[in-house]
């Protein structure tokens, strides 16, 4: 089997959102993506996407596009695309950062290998570890009444496993929001709150101690990502799970968190880790320490959502799957084939990601970031 990369095509995209996507760190009105298409010598193509977010990784549409076009694409041509470890080492030597750009390459390579072998990505990276993928009901920063309406509707539509809400904009509003949401959720439904680093330790303790009675199952990244001592104190003093998100970008970060007992869960985002391959290293390290993981996301198309689903399906210690559903956020998607059904992601037996690109949408939303 011929397994050489022939060429790498890079296409920046900007897709408007149906409504603003708001966290304590940013307010987005559109999604920036960089589509990467890797073709082998026999014309088989795999694709992936970068999700550059300045408030998360420091990457912009311009910087991710530049890194992919001028650094990664030239370095990858002619390489055996099955040698993922070598390819990641090459990318890391060229540029230490740019994780979402590396994620796009990694995703495209997994898609390509899956297509060459005729198997879905989850079969390449461990096989099914779950009978189904139950996903979080999700609500961004919103007034309590609006959040309740969103989540009640989600529960009616089959999202009955866990709910995640954004907090961190206002302490009193946060308390009311959490209480109101907990009242309308089924008793056996987990509730995750995500502060996106909004609090210091004393503020986090004041708020979370009042909710540490079974109201909240887990709190995600309550303090700044550098405040490992603060994360350790919260983990020690709270019975709810403390989940590290922005504090973990690599398996070295995960080791540091585990060593300092600074979290009891880890949110693994492919766009932070640099792809499926390094994300598997993070999850394996967490599993060795007895920690469960959540697969996180940002505003994304079906390309990233599918990659996250394959990773979650093949990773035994993934407890929560937290995608931002493309059809709920984007005015139009650039890929098709991923099925969301009553609070589940349905993965079939199609090769690779199991998706087809919508070429007309790609042409419509392609931009020139220069």
Protein architecture, described:
This protein is an alpha/beta fold and 370 residues long. Helix content is 40%, strand content 22%. The chain is built from 14 helices and 16 strands. The strands form four sheets. Strands 5-6-7-8-9-10-11-12 form an eight-stranded parallel sheet. Strands 1-2-3 form a three-stranded antiparallel sheet. The protein has a three-stranded antiparallel sheet with strand order 4-15-14. α5 (144-156) links the parallel β5 (137-139) and β6.
How do the helices and strands line up, and which of them pair or pack?
Elements: E1 5-22, E2 27-40, E3 45-50, H1 61-76, H2 84-94, H3 99-117, H4 121-124, E4 133-134, E5 137-139, H5 144-156, E6 162-166, H6 171-184, E7 190-194, H7 201-211, E8 218-220, H8 228-237, E9 241-244, H9 251-259, E10 265-268, H10 270-273, H11 276-288, E11 292-295, H12 302-313, E12 318-321, H13 326-329, E13 335-336, E14 339-341, E15 344-346, E16 356-357, H14 359-365
Parallel strand pairs: 5-6, 6-7, 7-8, 8-9, 9-10, 10-11, 11-12
Antiparallel strand pairs: 1-2, 2-3, 4-15, 13-16, 14-15
Helix pairs in contact: 1-2, 1-3, 5-6, 9-11
Mean pLDDT comes to: 95
Report how far apart the termini are.
38 Å
User: CATH topology of the largest domain, which one?
Assistant: TIM Barrel
| Oligomeric composition of the shown chains | single chain
CATH architecture of the largest domain: Alpha-Beta Barrel
Strand neighbour order, sheet with most strands: 5-6-7-8-9-10-11-12
Give the helix level as a range of percent. Answer: 25-40%
DSSP strand count? 16
Which sequence of SSEs, written as H and E, runs from N to C? Answer: EEEHHHHEEHEHEHEHEHEHHEHEHEEEEH
Number of helices: 14
Structural classification = alpha/beta
């Amino acid at each position: 089997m011929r397994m050489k990369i022939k060429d790498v095509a890079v296409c920046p995209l900007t897709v408007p959102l149906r409504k603003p996507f708001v966290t304590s760190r940013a307010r987005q009105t559109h999604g920036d993506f960089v589509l990467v298409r890797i073709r082998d010598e026999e014309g088989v193509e795999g694709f992936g996407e970068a999700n550059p977010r300045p408030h998360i990784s420091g990457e912009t549409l311009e910087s991710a596009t530049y890194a992919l076009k001028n650094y990664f694409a030239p370095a990858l041509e002619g390489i055996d695309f099955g040698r993922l470890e070598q390819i990641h080492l090459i990318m890391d030597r060229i540029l230490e950062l740019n994780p979402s750009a590396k994620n796009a390459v990694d995703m495209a390579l997994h898609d390509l290998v899956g297509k060459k072998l005729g198997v879905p990505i989850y079969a390449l990276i461990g096989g099914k570890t779950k009978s189904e993928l139950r996903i979080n009901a999700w609500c961004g920063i919103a007034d309590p009444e609006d959040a309740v309406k969103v989540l009640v509707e989600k529960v009616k539509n089959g999202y009955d496993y866990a709910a995640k809400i954004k907090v961190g904009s206002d302490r009193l509003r946060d308390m009311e929001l959490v209480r109101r949401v907990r009242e309308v959720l089924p008793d056996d439904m987990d509730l995750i709150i995500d502060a996106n680093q909004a609090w210091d330790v004393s503020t986090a303790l004041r708020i979370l101690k009042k909710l540490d009675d079974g109201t909240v199952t887990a709190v995600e990244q309550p303090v700044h990502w550098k405040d490992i001592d603060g994360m350790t104190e919260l983990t020690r003093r709270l019975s709810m799970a403390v989940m590290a998100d922005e504090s973990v970008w690599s398996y070295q970060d995960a080791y540091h968190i585990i060593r300092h007992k600074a979290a009891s869960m880890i949110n693994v985002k492919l766009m932070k880790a640099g792809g499926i391959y390094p994300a598997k290293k993070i999850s394996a390290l967490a599993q060795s320490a007895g920690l469960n993981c959540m697969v996180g996301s940002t505003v994304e198309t079906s390309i990233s959502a599918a990659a996250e689903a394959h990773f979650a399906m093949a990773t035994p210690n993934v407890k929560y799957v937290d995608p931002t559903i493309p059809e709920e956020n984007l005015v139009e998607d650039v890929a098709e084939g991923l099925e969301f059904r009553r609070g589940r992601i349905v993965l079939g037996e199609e090769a690779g990601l199991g998706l087809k690109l919508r070429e007309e949408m790609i042409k419509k939303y392609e931009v020139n970031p220069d």
